[in-house]
Amino acid sequence: MSDYLLKSICYDGQIRVFTIDATETVAEAQRRHDTWSASSAALGRTMVGALLLGVMVKGDEKVTVKVEGNGPTGHIIADSNGRGTVKGYIANPKVSLPLNENGKIDVRGAVGTEGTLTVTKDLGLKEPFAGQVPLISGELAEDFTYYMATSEQTPSAFGLSVLVDKDESIKAAGGFMIQVMPGATDETITAIEKAIAEIPMVSRLMEDGETPEEILNRLVSGGEPKILEKMPIAFECDCSKERFAGAIVSLGKKEIDDMITEDQGAEAVCHFCGNHYNFSVEELEELKTNA
Ligand code: ZN
Q1: Ligand 1 centroid – CA 121 distance (Å)
Q2: What would the pLDDT profile of 86-98 be if each residue is shown by its tens digit?
Q3: Is the N or the C terminus of the chain less surrounded, counting Cβ atoms within 10 Å?
């Protein structure tokens, strides 16, 4: 089954809810980066959060989430857009920790509790929008929630969840975002808070076969949810040999000469997807003429 995200409104437009199954998307990132459990969960949660923010911008407009904590994973970057695709990077993919006191992957221990979460939106304007908050949890869902409240003045709640199998493969990944719109009644907010407190881990529900539609119903069953859009979600990297060629040209003639004489070629690796691009001596000579 392919990944998708549902956009919906409920409680007569007082609440906006997105639910997402990103299992294949996070699984692809896990395979490409060969991440271990705690790194997989930290990277996967960041990617799901970035997707939930990304689908709020238009088409090719971009949203970049950067988590810089003091934990062993180092920094994490997820790049998404209005088309529902995402790519992700984690500085240390090989972090695996004992389960926390709730029997779950210790994402806080992996990410750290001191640091920042930064969201940059490239909306095609002169200057990108950037908002930054300190990490308040390190579990990431609370940090995205805090970002929305502080930087975007939007009360919301995030659920971000990744389930990892014993062989490090991804069993399930997904989440939700609930936004409280202006004019929401106390009664509605109380009902939502109760549903959020009661919902089991989304990735466990997905492992049991629950769909984003069913998770939506768990969250807002009393609010007559209306689905506005069903959007396919996928891992996608926009790197290319041309882009790396441009980066090599910008290094200058001297650097390129070194690659030719010392290495008899060059190999570039994309940090986001792991694709390798090889440049022969002939190709480097050609690039040198443009440098
Ligand atoms: Zn790439």
Answers
A1: 20
A2: 999 999 999 999 9
A3: N
